[in-house]
Amino acid sequence: MWGLGNVLVASIPLNGLTIGVYRLGLGSLLYLGILYGQGARLTMNSFRYGVLGGIAFGADIATFFLAVRNTTVSVAVTISALQPVVIAGFAAITFGEKIRPRHILGTAVAVPAVALVAFSGPDSGGQSLFGNLMAVAALFAWSAYFIASKKAREKLPTMEYMTVMNMVAFVTVLAIAIPVGALWADSGEMSWKTAALIVGVVAVPGTGHILMNWSHAHTTLMLTSLATLTMPVVSTLGAWLFLDQAVSAAQMIGIAVVLAVLAYVVVGDSRELRNP
Fold this sequence. Notes:
mainly alpha
């Protein structure tokens, strides 16, 4: 869902910050309605445990949406795919997770394969230094979001955390978008098609966030982090299908390697969980 969400974002004719504001505002209203419809309520503890994840997610939305609007989708998601390298130390120190040889081997093989997916495609001229720098900033915000979410899920149910996280992220992105005038830059570009695409971003990658944040309470941070390596695969194939961004034979090889490595790691982890 996240991989397809990147393709949706790249299809929206608005600047990245404006997309982020609309996406997070609509998501906040949706999750708030679901939460209260379930009979649950937000409390001070909701914000106490959810605020860090919201700030990190807001920073990630702002930087990553700017990245996919200023560089190619494959390059943006490939830089974000370096997340397991950033996450590994925190998983071991903060959560006491055991980093197995398969995790190290999987990261060592999959990250270059993901780079192959991104950088072996035909040059579409869509890259820029600004877009690449925003993708690097998004990498660290994305990693912080995963760590904060894992900690928050120790205290908060999924939908309560999703609601708070989106509300805080909305305020974070809004605080960035207003001073730079992003909201007014595209004031004449909104259409029914654009609005539908924004709803699609809330529905598709937004549901991906619900599933991943539920998973944080049931598996390891290292495994969920490695699972995100499928995003470049899905995004690259989606950009090929829907955005006419060409895919080379070398990219297809990289995609196959990434999927094989993830299968190896996931099967190994699941066997260990069944037979501790």
